[in-house]
Amino acid sequence: MLEALGVEPAAEAVYRLLVNEPGFRVCDMAAHLGWDEDQVRAALSRLAELDLVHLEDGSRDAVPFSPDVGFGFLLSRATADLSRRQRQIESAEQAVTALSARFNANRASRHEIIHRLEGLDAVRRRLEDLAATAEQECLSLMSGGGQLPDTMDASQPLDRQALERGVRIRSIYQESFRNDPATLEYVRWFTGFGGEARTVPVLPMLLVVVDRQTALVPIDPADGRAGALEIRTPGVVGALTVLFEQFWAAGTPFGEGPRRDENDLKPQERELLLLLGIGCTDEVAARRLGLSLRTVRRMSSQLMARLGARSRFEAGVRAAKEGWL
Fold first, then answer.
1. What is the CATH number of the domain that holds 216?
2. Which helix (H) or strand (E) holds 4?
3. Cβ contact 183:177 at 8 Å
4. 20 to 30 A from 303, CA-CA: which of 111, 157, 199, 241?
């Protein structure tokens, strides 16, 4: 009970016996406690060190000091030790709080990184670096149909090096790229060398994801030459990777013809009906699909005829009512 004050159980038992039986000598205490006399003397010596008893006649007799006096000092000292310990704990708590704040700040700075790449040249240089250091995979959305010749010229050696190192490269193109002979030839080379390609009618933007750790998206989706944002925030890169995988699952593997659905619609025709149904003009639909205005008008006329519609908007509405969309 008194160990918190530095009084061991044996010393406490002897002190209590002295208080209860003031006339007891060492031999009496030994007999009462069932100890040998050396154990009693050792306990008395400890009590004397704590100024709780006064030893007389070579430790054969002991007189206890008043508990108010003896234990009052021990209590004061214990209280002072407790206060000092409390201050140490408070200081340690403040230090831990500061360390935690620094750790979280450093972690945030490592994880939430967005770097602005100004201009097409800066983007190409960064893509060269990423292609050279890629270890597992490169994913890309190639929006806009036909690709720029200088872009393909710059990409070919990078793709070759990465594929030779065993990096898996998957690219998704808009179906309209087939209308551009140079892009079509490039994709033939790319897939023949080990790359994987699929097509979809519409893509929202350009996108590159490397090793699911770094993503590049355009600063301005309407102008790929303006530059790109390099993103290494895990949550954002993860979301962009999911976006890619959804398009990949819906895409048509290169080398296969576009799959028609149960209504005998190609994916490109179905997408055109969706655009017409929300009121897009032929011009807007052509830009979204990466097709010429003439091609879109021809497709629209054919779809209108199949649906018995008198306008493009009516074609979209009828397609929805007929369950085509």
1. 3.30.870.10
2. none
3. yes
4. 199
Q: Are residues 186 and 146 in the same domain?
A: yes
In a domain, residue 197? The reply is yes
**Per-position DSSP letters for 100-133, written without gaps between them:** HHHHHHHHHHHHS-EEEEEHHHHHHHHHHHHHHH
178 part of a folded domain? yes
In sequence order, the β-bridge partners of residue 13 are: none
Phi and psi for 238 in degrees, rounded to 5? Answer: -60, -40
Contacts of 128 (CB under 8 A, 6+ apart): 154, 158
Note whether 273 and 247 are same-domain residues.
Answer: no
What string of pLDDT tens digits covers the 325 residues of the chain?
Answer: 777 777 888 887 878 877 787 778 788 888 888 888 888 888 888 878 777 777 766 555 777 777 776 677 677 777 777 778 777 777 777 777 777 767 665 654 555 578 888 888 888 888 888 888 888 999 999 887 667 677 777 788 888 888 898 999 999 988 877 777 888 888 888 889 899 999 888 888 889 999 999 999 998 877 777 888 999 988 899 999 999 999 898 888 887 766 666 777 777 888 888 887 777 788 888 887 877 888 888 888 888 888 787 877 777 777 777 777 6
Last residue of a domain, one of 65, 84, 99: 65
The total of structural domains in the chain comes to 3
Contacts for 39 with CB less than 8 Å, ≥ 6 apart = 10, 30, 33
Is the domain of 126 the same as that of 204? yes
Instruction: Tell me the residue range of the domain where 233 lies.
Output: 116-253
* CATH number of domain containing 41: 1.10.10.10
Identify the pLDDT of residue 244: 92
Q: Are residues 143 and 233 in the same domain?
A: yes
Phi, psi of 247 (to 5 degrees): -65, -40
Helices then strands, each counted (H, E), the chain = 12, 10
Measured CA to CA, the distance from residue 107 to residue 16 in angstroms comes to: 59
What does 128-179 look like in DSSP terms, one character per residue? Answer: HHHHHH--SEEEEEE-SSSPPHHHHHHHHHHHHHHHHTT-EEEEEEEGGGGG
